[in-house]
Amino acid sequence: MLGSRSLRLDQACQINAANDLEAIECWLATIDNPNTHRAYRKEAYRLALWSFSFQQKPVSGLRVEDLHRYFDWLAGPMRHPEWPAHWRLINGPLKESSRRQAKIILQALFDYLVNASYLAVNPFRLLGKNQRGRETVAPAGFDEEGQVAINRWIEPDLWGWLVDFLDALPVSTATRRARVERLRFLLEWLYRTAARRSELAGARMGHIHRTQGLWLWRVMGKGGRVVDVPLDRQAIDAMVRYRRFRGLPDYPQRGEGGVPLVSALDGVGAIQGLQIYSALKWFFRMAEPAARSLDVQWGEALKAASTHWIRHSLASHAARAGVPIHLTAERLRHKSHATTQRYYIHSSLKEQVEAFDRDLLRRDGDE
Known about the structure:
The protein has helices at residues 20-28, 34-55, 64-75, 96-115, 156-167, 174-193, 197-201, 233-245, 273-294, 296-304, 307-320, 325-332, 337-341, 345-360; strands at residues 208-211, 214-220, 226-230. The protein is mostly helical and 367 residues long. Helix 1 packs antiparallel against helix 2, helix 2 (34-55) packs across helix 4 and helix 9 (273-294) runs antiparallel to helix 10 (296-304). The N and C termini lie far apart (82 Å).
């Protein structure tokens, strides 16, 4: 049963997989980073063995109610009595952040299987946007331990330090250089364009075009909205540098419609959304100890940071720099300025402090 298959779509299937384990291996074969491959394999096989042991089902037979049970189990796991002692599927209860990461990875696995016509549906998509198993959700503004939650953006000083840290990374091998060059482009492009990782993973060189003296990136955003994102000088410079590294002309040419904007490390094929996520998490984890030695809060921020924080960071930095809210909303592709307003709250709070210090809280004799 462990390797069997439910909901068969044999005639349309686009991968050479006779059972679920072979299908999982097909998915894992698309992941080029060894560390990412190891992490994804662990999540996929943990689900497969749990499903077989506790539900007596193959992975392809899991339904929404089974996934609820699985995330309950991750929060309070018990070993199956028939599991060998040397199996280390889980060492204890997973924190909410780890359960969230498991859901992201497994949802990507099932998306792949659906896209390959191996499965008909992805039950993870039916859990709901904010439902990750049956987790206890902390009150807004607080974390799981009841402490004030960390802002989901990177402070300007830390951002500048991160850029310098990346520039100083050693590139002793060809693979390491490819990783660092790709990472440098990802960091700059995600920040300058406020890109979501799904937008960047699907981007092609043919989506970049020049109109009336402006370089634009045509993006398919949320809800199928198509918008042109103007590229500033820093974004263009990052693109030129990355293209030169890949052996391409400085600027996109006719006939490059299918060339990925961001390639896999081997130079063949496009990067996937989860690979973007993993690349940035790898970088943040690597930078965390050095950042923490300078400022404990910097270390805590990088420990929690993820790809989407870069988008939040641009918005927060723009608000502090006095960029008009309508321009920030356009860059973020927000339908409503009300969504963008939250990034301007910090500026408002700072103005409150300055106003009270200046006008209401002056001591006698102050001029």
